[in-house]
Design brief:
mainly alpha; globular
């Protein structure tokens, strides 16, 4: 959800720069389209942008903002086509400015589609154009986020560090870098970044959630609880704030209260709530219900992660759908980081065991025990796998 808001803010900024005062028909449509866009009425805005383009096909700013409107409507191919129509092979400043904005727009379309490799390629093309240097920080921020999503963590840290060097009071940059350090298990660095972020944005729920997760992964539950308590005191101003307060209650295990808050958020169009409703259903062992919530979360275009795909894997395992479980596990591993590796390895063993690959499951179980040790359940499973493998060996002799 926050990603969409960011795009809208950028598009509106472009609109303010490019809007003219002409009273001709094209500009009348264009100004109406801008008004509708800023009010969030993207479908009607798209109609007015189309009318403006029909009147003046050569106005790049019409196509640019129409492209951003199409992104909001999730019509990504159409958005990319609008941006591509702006690109010209001429080495003159105005054309180069349009090209840079077009490449950036294509990059944002791919970013929103979560095709981070393609997004990076277009953002880098935009950076190669020296015109409109004021867009470079925004473009580099997108590239850093792409690196993060592509698990190119060293590149992401380097990119965020460079951004911080020129914008040292930007809480979002510290938070983003802190999240990457946490994924790498570099908890001291992550906590330091979260604390720095909170000095500039003490009401940012995302920073508190990052710090909470880091302390939990470090085994410092008392500090994690303290972070949540501070987050619960943030003043509520928006529906998103209320959703975030629901997350605080979720992490505090207050499921009855947060379920009400998440359903309220969902009724107001905040589709991220689907994920947490899915988590509550998992806790209640309602696997079909959990699966439906997780799939709704994905269908709405929310950000995906190793944890998200792992929860889908768990649902499919519990529903004995091991083909889909294996597919979701593969997706999870492509996003994986240190904090979730143990869960992924355990789920992979379960899938191999239930699909009859006892040799593969035993090898992974030995790897698991060496890395994480064994509890009673792991010990039982290990003995079972040894028995099955030894039985198979005898059957072939």
């Amino acid at each position: 959800m926050k990603k969409t808001v960011k795009m809208a803010a950028v598009a509106c900024a472009v609109a303010m720069v490019t809007a003219g005062c002409s009273f001709n028909k094209a500009n009348t449509y264009y100004e109406k389209a801008q008004e509708l866009y800023q009010s969030g009425d993207y479908e009607e805005a798209a109609q007015y942008f189309t009318r403006a383009i029909e009147q003046k096909e050569d106005r790049a700013e019409y196509r640019l903002e129409y492209g951003f409107t199409l992104i909001q409507l999730k019509e990504y191919d159409a958005a990319i086509a609008q941006f591509e129509s702006m690109v010209m092979d001429k080495n003159i400043p105005m054309v180069l400015q349009n090209n840079k904005q077009a490449y950036r727009g294509i990059g944002i379309a791919y970013f929103t589609m979560q095709d981070y490799k393609s997004a990076t390629d277009y953002f880098e093309q935009a950076l190669q154009i020296s015109e409109l240097s004021e867009l470079n920080t925004d473009i580099r921020s997108y590239i850093a986020s792409c690196y993060d999503n592509l698990a190119r963590y060293d590149d992401a840290i380097e990119a965020y560090t460079e951004l911080i060097s020129s914008d040292s009071k930007n809480a979002a940059l510290y938070n983003a870098r802190g999240n990457i350090y946490r994924k790498l298990g570099e908890y001291e660095s992550s906590i330091k970044d979260y604390e720095q972020a909170l000095t500039y944005a003490s009401d940012n729920f995302d920073v508190y959630f990052g710090a909470y997760t880091a302390f939990r992964e470090m085994g410092q539950d008392a500090k994690a609880a303290e972070v949540l308590e501070k987050a619960s005191l943030i003043k509520m101003n928006t529906d998103q704030d209320k959703l975030d307060l629901g997350k605080v209650h979720f992490y505090q295990n207050n499921y009855e209260q947060c379920e009400v808050e998440f359903n309220d958020a969902l009724s107001k169009g905040l589709t991220e709530a689907n994920y947490y409703l899915g988590e509550i259903a998992l806790i209640n062992e309602e696997y079909e219900t959990a699966l439906s919530y997780f799939l709704a979360y994905k269908q709405a275009g929310n950000t995906l992660s190793a944890t998200f795909f792992n929860q889908l894997t768990v649902c499919y395992i519990q529903l004995n759908d091991f083909e889909n479980a294996a597919e979701m596990l593969a997706n999870a591993k492509s996003y994986a980081h240190i904090a979730i590796d143990q869960q992924l390895l355990r789920n992979e063993i379960i899938i191999l065991e239930n699909t009859g690959d006892f040799d593969g499951a035993l090898k992974l179980m030995e790897k698991y025990i060496k890395r994480y040790g064994q509890d009673e359940d792991v010990e039982k499973d290990y003995l079972f796998l040894q028995t099955r493998v030894n039985s198979n060996i005898k059957d072939t002799e």
